Amino acid sequence: MLARAVRLLLLWGGLLACCTGAWATTTVVHYTSAEMLREEAASFRPLAATVDEATLPGRWTQVELPRVIDKPTASGAGKLPVVTTWLRVRLDALQGMKGPTHFYLIRWLAAGQIAVYADGQLRYRSTGSAVWNLFNHPALLLPLNLTADSPPPRTLLIRLDSLSTPEAAISSFYAGDSDSLVEMAAKRDWLAYQLPFMCSAAFLAVGFFSLAVWVVRRQPANLYLFAIALLSSTRRWHFQLGPEKLIVSDAWFIWLTLNALMWQSLITHYFLQFLHGRAMPRLSRVMLGMAVVFSVVTLPVTSVFPSLLALRPHAHLLLIGMGTLVLLVGLWHSWRSRSLDAKMLSIAFLLNYVFGVYDWARIKYVLDLESYYLTPYAAMVLFAMFVVIMFRQYVGALNGVERLNTGLEERLQSREAELAASYDKLRQVEQRETLSRERQRLTQDMHDGLGSSLVSALRVVEGGRLSEADVAEVLKGCIDDLKLTIDSLEPVEADLLLLLATLRFRLGPRLASAGVTLRWEITDVPALNWLDPRNALHILRILQEAFANILKHTRASEIRVATSAAEGYVNVIISDNGQGFDVARAFASGGKGLSNQQRRAQAIGAEILLESSGTGTLLTLRLAEKRPEP
Predict the structure, then answer these.
(1) Residue 561, CA distances (Å) to 505, 558, 571, 576, 581 in order
(2) Which of 41, 87, 262, 265 could join 34 in a cystine, given CB atoms 3.0 to 4.6 angstroms apart?
(3) What keywords appear on the UniProt entry (predicted)?
(4) How many CB atoms lie within 10 A of CB 238?
(5) Strand partners, 520
């Protein structure tokens, strides 16, 4: 990947070189040599509006461009001496050229300022501070003609004022057709500044988005991404801003850029630990302590070092050492882990490290100072890698949620199947228990009712005390009793009226054969949700006993059956016009009929009200609408 990146950069440089060569053969001249004159002073001297090159002290010497300015030989009475370097170029090749012309200087490096004179007249002066001009690595593009029709100047003088530390340098330059040079400068500016700036702005925007996500979700990866994006933009802001003076002092600017690189390396170390999952608490504490000490010691307010600009080369060595440690530890543990994200971040940090060392060698003038700085492109690689990592984290989170949902759905289906099987077993058990209870109920009821009647009839018949008509009457009663038992098994669905209709159907013919008129005055009543076969049989038995008592004892010719509902009760009323009886005496005598009715009424939570006189008997069965408590 590194080799491909280098080849791509070389291709860009080759294209620019081809374009430059083509311009040089037509309307643009590439100047790679100049005459140089040096002056040394204790402080910066003011710029003059005009300069006469003949009055400048010293001797002009021919030098090649690009050129590194030699350090001064004097110490300047305890102060950092200032070097003023003059470069003189004759623009003979531009004479006779028609149209506007421009001057394009690729780069100048100096902790100081630059000024350009055309035929002795000041055409340009830098506006930034000495430190900012050093960090900004600015290119210089300015017109040579005062008007479109005026001829280009014959001589250019470039004045470069710089501190002795760090060393200053100046690149070769171009002069000629304005359109060609503006296009050339625009292309180089887009590649060197605009493209990295757009990526850095996008990186910072993604960082703030990650910070917002961290505030909501508290995931460490989002906080790490924000911190690295912010620190990456801070340490490279001199690539992205203009030559204007900043709102912070030069000392604070140097402090911010140096410490941003230190803390970026440290945060990357923590992020790598998070990704590959191999914690190194002791090493992390040592590195954190180093970063804190470095930040405190280099604070401009502490005055530990009189000049951070002089400290900067030594600080770079410490930063390279910190980056080397983070790189080696991160690569080792990332490659031993199974985390692809950790490996990708390690590769991105490796590229940042290599590009950073490359640029450090360039500012030491070991390499060509006119080539592109690579650390802005390293930031682009880091941004792209972070986008890939966060995308993978997001997709991985979605896949995890999907797997979790799938697992939950499978467990839910399994649980539902288990519950369904359990419910089936419970239904089967319940059905068996219900059938068993019904068998017991029917057996008990037939034993107490039909069986008792048959046994009694059998004993009387064996004793010869009943006539055939009496035996037939007993058998009819037994048959009616059996029919009522069977009828109680039919579903009535909480409908009392349906149950009464069944009773009328069974007992109606017997009443008619006995010469008793049945008046049916049934009205609609609320449903009884507790009316099941067991309770229905109790109600039928109570009413059957009432009819039997009327036929046997009251000599009634008419029976009236009515219903009503009031105050949460449903009433079933049976009255006759017979001769009546003494209710108290009947209960005192211990008759089984009345006692059976009371017992059955208590079993269903009902109440029997009995009134009797010489004009008839009134029986009221009060049934609660709601299911009675057991």
Answers:
(1) 13, 10, 11, 9, 19
(2) 87
(3) ATP-binding, Coiled coil, Kinase, Membrane, Nucleotide-binding, Signal, Transferase, Transmembrane, Transmembrane helix, Two-component regulatory system
(4) 18
(5) 561
Rounded Cα gap, residues 578 and 562, in angstroms: 17
Name residue, tokens 């250019």: 156
Q: Which CATH number belongs to the domain containing residue 521 in this structure?
A: 3.30.565.10
Whether residue 225 sits in one domain with residue 151: no
Q: Are residues 42 and 159 in the same domain?
A: yes
CB 300 within 8 A of CB 249: yes
pLDDT tens digits, residue range 274-318?
888 888 999 999 999 999 998 888 888 765 555 677 777 778 888
Instruction: Tell me if 8 is assigned to some domain.
Output: no
Task: Look at residue 335 and tell me if it is in a domain.
Answer: yes
Identify the CA nearest to 574 among candidates 609, 599, 598.
609
138 three-state secondary structure: coil
* C-alpha separations of 558 from 238, 516, 519, 545, 613 in Å: 117, 5, 7, 16, 15
Each residue of 123-176: pLDDT tens digit? 999 887 777 777 776 789 999 988 878 889 999 999 999 887 778 899 999 999
Domain with 103, as residue range(s), is 29-185
User: 16: which 2 tokens?
Assistant: 């620019």
Phi, psi of 609, deg, nearest 5? -110, 125
Report d(CA 585, CA 571) in Å as an integer. Answer: 25
User: Six-digit token pair at 77?
Assistant: 């009475």
8-state DSSP, 237: G
pLDDT over 70 percentage in the chain: 81
Q: State the Cα–Cα distance between residues 272 and 496, nearest whole angstrom.
A: 79
Cα dihedral sign, 199-205-211-212: negative
Determine, yes or no, domain membership for 451. no
Lookup: tokens for 61? 């010497």
CB 104 within 8 A of CB 127: no
In Å, how far from its chain's centre is CA 552?
86
Task: Give the helix ranges, DSSP H, for 451-582.
Answer: 452-462, 468-487, 496-513, 533-549
Task: Assess contact for 185 and 104: CB atoms under 8 A.
Answer: yes
Only one residue has tokens 């294209």, namely 15
Residue 34 included in any domain? yes
pTM: 0.60
